[in-house]
């Protein structure tokens, strides 16, 4: 699913208008992954990670930023895909206002914390069905923006199972986070 989501669009129809961005970077946290929130089982905090694939799992990371994941397994099985970066499409002025310090278009949705700030995603969207009508949903892109190749690398900011190549991105896209060479 992490590869599949590259090139798709995440849309938030917020009270202040539509915000959307093309997904250009993801990280997979499959079943049995020691770095995943489901590794130790279902808890009050991660219960939405165990919903059927296609739901939003939103959590507060280190008390600073909300992070948005898409559940990737059958109901009752914990696994997900972290959305790491988007290329803003709609509501860019609102996204700039939400991120405050970020004025470069390439930086608005680069990184999972900035992504949720730009899209105004927080715990209210936790558990949303991203495949059904609602304020937060996933869409496909036009054929003109087809992804030719998907890059892969190790995940960023983890210590357990850090060697696994479970980070996927669109090579050459200026909105990808991490080292500069991935954006060229």
CATH topology: 3-methyladenine DNA Glycosylase, Chain A
Q: Main sheet?
A: 8 strands, antiparallel
How would the global form be characterised? globular
Structural domains: how many: 1
> What CATH architecture would you give?
Roll
Estimated radius of gyration: 15 Å
Query: What is the string of SSEs from the N terminus onward?
Result: HEEEEEHHHEEE
Question: Regions with pLDDT < 50 over 5+ consecutive residues?
Answer: none
The CATH class:
Alpha Beta
Please tell me about this protein's structure.
- This protein has 184 residues and is of the alpha+beta class.
- It has a single domain (2-139, 149-174), classed as 3-methyladenine DNA Glycosylase, Chain A.
- Helix content is 13%, strand content 29%.
- The protein has helices spanning 2-5, 92-99, 105-108, 112-119, and strands at 9-14, 17-29, 56-61, 65-71, 80-90, 136-139, 151-153, 167-169.
- Strands 1, 2, 3, 4, 5, 6, 7 and 8 form an eight-stranded antiparallel sheet that branches.
- Strand 1 (9-14) and strand 2 form a beta hairpin.
- Helix 2 crosses helix 4.
- It starts with a helix and ends in a 15-residue tail after the last strand.
What's this model, at a glance?
The chain has 184 residues and is α+β, with helices and mostly antiparallel strands. The protein has 4 helices and 8 strands, in the order αβββββαααβββ.
């Amino acid at each position: 699913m992490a590869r599949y989501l590259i090139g798709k669009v995440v849309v938030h129809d917020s009270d202040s208008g539509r915000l959307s961005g093309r997904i250009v970077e993801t990280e997979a946290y499959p079943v049995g992954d020691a770095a995943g929130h489901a590794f130790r089982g279902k808890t009050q905090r991660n219960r939405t990670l165990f919903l059927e694939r296609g739901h939003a799992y939103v959590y507060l990371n280190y008390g600073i930023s909300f992070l948005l994941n898409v559940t990737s397994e059958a109901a009752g099985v914990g696994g997900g895909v972290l959305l790491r970066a988007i290329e803003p499409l709609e509501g860019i002025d609102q996204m700039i206002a939400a991120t405050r310090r970020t004025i470069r278009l390439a930086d608005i949705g680069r990184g999972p914390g900035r992504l949720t700030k730009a899209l105004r995603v927080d715990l209210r969207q936790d558990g949303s069905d991203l495949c059904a009508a609602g304020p937060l949903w996933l869409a496909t892109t036009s054929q003109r923006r087809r992804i030719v190749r998907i890059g892969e690398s190790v995940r960023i900011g983890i210590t357990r199972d850090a060697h696994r190549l479970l980070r996927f991105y669109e090579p050459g896209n200026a909105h990808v986070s991490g080292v500069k060479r991935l954006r060229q």
